[in-house]
Automatic annotation (TrEMBL):
Taxonomic placement: Bacteria, Pseudomonadati, Pseudomonadota, Alphaproteobacteria, Hyphomicrobiales
Residue ranges occupied by any HTH crp-type domain in the UniProt entry: 148-222
Sorted UniProt keywords: DNA-binding, Kinase, Transcription, Transcription regulation, Transferase
CDD domains: CAP_ED (cd00038)
InterPro entries: cNMP-bd_dom, cNMP-bd_dom_sf, HTH_CRP, RmlC-like_jellyroll, WH-like_DNA-bd_sf, WH_DNA-bd_sf
Protein name per UniProt: cAMP-binding domain of CRP or a regulatory subunit of cAMP-dependent protein kinases
SMART domains, A to Z: HTH_CRP
Signal peptide: none
Origin: domain of life: Bacteria
Length: 240
């Protein structure tokens, strides 16, 4: 019978070596399931945390706001991610975590997570690896936002989401769910909504990508990957 944390197990198994004992320990974690509507906050900037949040279904995003109200989306988080894992050690978070689409999350108390990690040091290594991979994504996106064209940024984002979702088994063929709006894409990629719409149309016209009603279809993977200068090495989707 499927368990709530199966998606977390699939995610960890995609990036490292998860032992049967470690898998069993994760399954035994007490988890409280909560439902979020689109735009609802799971974590608010400045909040002092006592639990970690696992994305069970749907899509979440981390973001920050400027004083003028403008928003920068920092990262998207599909099922299997723990976007606030760093709150185990940095209790006061410096971002807001919100639902991009109606979502289901699992809340795990810090005390329960820490007890498990003390009992299973190999899991500590695996969660640390996950945190380092998260940092690698930030480095890549800092470069892209600062240096890449709008078309390259958009192409890279869809390549990344395709590979991340494929690694946990939620991709069918060349299609995958990505229920971000054009406003979300604009705020993630540092462009206006009009520019985001035009960029998506250009990728469609070039026969590279189709995106409609929350579903993306990769039409030409080699060319989309080349345009986005996408090298999946920074995602470390291997056990080495």
């Amino acid at each position: 019978m499927p368990q709530p944390l199966d998606v977390l197990i699939a995610k960890l198994d995609a990036i490292g070596r998860l032992s049967p004992e470690g898998e069993a320990a994760i399954r035994q974690l007490p988890v409280r399931v909560a439902h979020l509507e689109r735009g609802e906050d799971a974590v608010m900037e400045g909040q002092v945390m006592g639990h970690c949040c696992v994305v069970l279904q749907g899509l979440l995003h981390r973001h920050k706001h400027m004083q003028d109200g403008s928003r920068q989306i920092l990262s998207f988080h599909p099922s299997g991610d723990i976007p606030d894992l760093q709150s185990l050690h940095l209790k006061r978070v410096d971002y807001t975590l919100s639902a991009t689409t109606p979502s289901e999350i699992g809340l795990i108390r810090h005390a329960d997570m820490q007890a498990m990690l003390r009992a299973y040091p190999t899991l500590t290594d695996l969660f640390w690896r996950d945190t380092l991979i998260d940092s690698a994504k930030f480095l890549t996106w800092m470069m892209l936002i600062g240096q890449a064209s709008a078309e390259a940024r958009m192409a890279h984002l869809f390549c990344e989401m395709f590979m991340r979702l494929k690694s946990v088994g939620t991709v069918e063929g060349n299609e995958f769910p990505f229920r971000a709006t054009q406003n979300d894409l604009a705020d993630a990629l540092g462009m206006s909504i009009v520019h985001a719409n035009r960029t998506l149309q250009e990728l469609r016209s070039a026969g590279l990508l189709a995106f409609s009603n929350g579903v993306a279809e990769i039409l030409d993977w080699p060319k989309l990957r080349a345009l986005g200068q996408f090298d999946p090495a920074y995602l470390h989707l291997s056990r080495d």
